[in-house]
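Reopening: structure tokens for the heme C complex, inputs below.
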Amino acid sequence: MILVWVRKAILLLGLLAGLSSATAVRAETLEELGQSLFFDTNLSLNRTQSCAACHMPDQAFTDARGMAASGGNPAVADDAAQRGKFKTPTLRNVAVTGPYMHNGVFGDLRTVMLFYNKHNSKAARRQINPETGAAWAPPVAGDNLAREELEFGPALKDREVDALVAFLRTLTDKRYEHLLSD
Ligand code: HEC
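Re-run output (same inputs, fresh job):
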């Protein structure tokens, strides 16, 4: 008798498991979450800008805007308003083209995400550059920082930082995939 009940219970459990796996919504992968974040305008204060506003997919993840590089461009060398401004770099193959930023200051893609996130997050641990273990270096042209845009978005959680990196890794051409780090 007991055996029959146990068998029935197992049968029922099996049925439920089968049902739930058939009807369950597939869990979002890290890459998919990263993709949503990349296009999410809620990351900006006025809710109109996303990563894709500057790193435009149809422009090889850069934009068509020219921006003067400080010092390097003689046409604007004396223009203080241009100091510290750089063109938006492409993100195609970005996961295999470190080091990052105009001066190659970061070796790891995750650090780039944390660097931008430090403005939004007031947490003490977010004020530390994980590559140096010290506080982030002060900006070269602090007066030209877009503080309002940088400082009032929502802070990213660890999983969201990981997700953006996971998404950026998907922008790697097949022929360079062997260069991806684990
Ligand atoms: C307002 C325009 C703008 C937005 C929005 C923006 N970026 Fe950028 N991004 C830039 C510029 C300009 C640089 C170059 C900065 C430098 O070299 O100092 C850059 C650099 C980067 C780099 C380093 C690339 C390299 O090869 O060195 C990565 C990665 C990156 N951005 C990813 C993102 C992600 C992810 C988002 C959204 C969370 C984002 N960016 C939002 C303009 C933007």
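Residues 6 and 12 are 10 Å apart (CA to CA). Helices lie at 2-23, 30-38, 51-54, 109-120, 147-151, 158-169. Marking as resolved unless the reporter disagrees.
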